Amino acid sequence: MSLSTVPLGRTGTTVSGLSFGTWRFGRETDTGELEVDRDQAHRLLSAYAEAGGNFIDTADMYGDGLSEEWIGDWLEGRDREDFVVASKVYWPTREDDPNGRGIGRKHLRRQVDRILDRLGTDYLDVLYCHRFDDQTPPEEFMRTLDGFVDDGRVNYLGASTFEPNAWEVARANEIADRRGYEPFTLAQPRYNLVNREIEGNYVEMCEAYDLGLCPWSPLAGGFLTGKYEREGSMPEGTRGAESDRFADRYLSEANFDALDVVRDVAEEVGATPAQVSVAWLMHHPQVTAPIVGARTVDQLEENLAADEVSLTDEQFERLAEAKEYSPMG
Ligand SMILES: NC(=O)c1ccc[n+]([C@@H]2O[C@H](COP(=O)([O-])OP(=O)(O)OC[C@H]3O[C@@H](n4cnc5c(N)ncnc54)[C@H](OP(=O)(O)O)[C@@H]3O)[C@@H](O)[C@H]2O)c1
């Protein structure tokens, strides 16, 4: 297969319509094992590239830097120019250091050097602020981020998970506009058929400021694959079995009702619930490229095949109405 391509928001860069997320690379489970080890990470990246994918999502804190390091190792034998790589900064990287966190100038500058070093590249295609940081004035972080674009170390800037506070992105972009700094051109919020909090006014903000929208957790952490049931135990080896928070977050009656609609549409179009859920985001007029996660190559291949799923307007609307907007997600 060859994944379709889309413009990366209003930028001049083109990406595959599905991005591949590497959050679970190098992540230790409760039993001390790695959820995705280096060899598996490389198998997943190769499967994604073979399917025609070029848009890789990481962050400085994924696997405590291992995600970036392993992507860097994998890129070594390839042409860096074939890939669009996004990373993020915010979460603490030096536990006892009050400046070892956030998006203040000191931490941003330190982290960009480290990210580039781990990825073995001269530049990042996208640098996201992983979260909003109310300790740092927006004038400071926008000026610092602008410097990275100026010196060529970063191509585009993004705001990740600032939602539901659309105004924080809007204010930062207004400041950037007044001062002639590079604005945020991308947003990376959580968005999927059962997490609808960005429908408050975040999606409208993205439209008003012309931000590309790359949703994370398109499968609600695996819930929308249909492998969790209303009754019964957690399927072994899944995110749900590993984390107590998963059940609280996803296994609600309202979510299972929405999943029933996904299952109906999946049967109608001859696809899996995972593919229909990802396809819904891909059909969404405001969405640029959902970021699919996967622990195995089989999962990844299933998710990437969402690119080939067509939905009618009626099916799109039925899925959109499967769960109502709620500010709590
Ligand atoms: N900006 C942020 O704050 C933020 C936050 C979260 C994620 N992200 C980005 O978004 C990416 C995707 O997030 P996510 O991992 O939460 O996405 P997701 O697609 O909602 O969930 C992925 C998980 O679902 C399960 N899964 C995926 N495909 C499956 C399939 N076909 N069949 C059965 N199970 C399947 C796997 O978990 P199990 O097999 O373990 O059940 C997999 O790890 C991340 O890698 C990261 O790059 C960003």
TrEMBL record:
One of its GO terms (molecular function) is oxidoreductase activity. Residues 18-323 form the NADP-dependent oxidoreductase domain. Coiled coil: none annotated. The keyword Oxidoreductase applies. CDD domains: AKR_AKR9C1. GO terms for cellular component: cytosol. Keywords: Oxidoreductase. Signal peptide: none annotated. InterPro entries: AKR_Detox_Biosynth, NAD(P)_OxRdtase_dom_sf, NADP_OxRdtase_dom. Gene3D superfamilies: NADP-dependent oxidoreductase domain. PANTHER family: NAD(P)-LINKED OXIDOREDUCTASE SUPERFAMILY PROTEIN, NADH-SPECIFIC METHYLGLYOXAL REDUCTASE-RELATED. This is Aldo/keto reductase. The lineage of its organism: Archaea, Methanobacteriati, Methanobacteriota, Stenosarchaea group, Halobacteria.
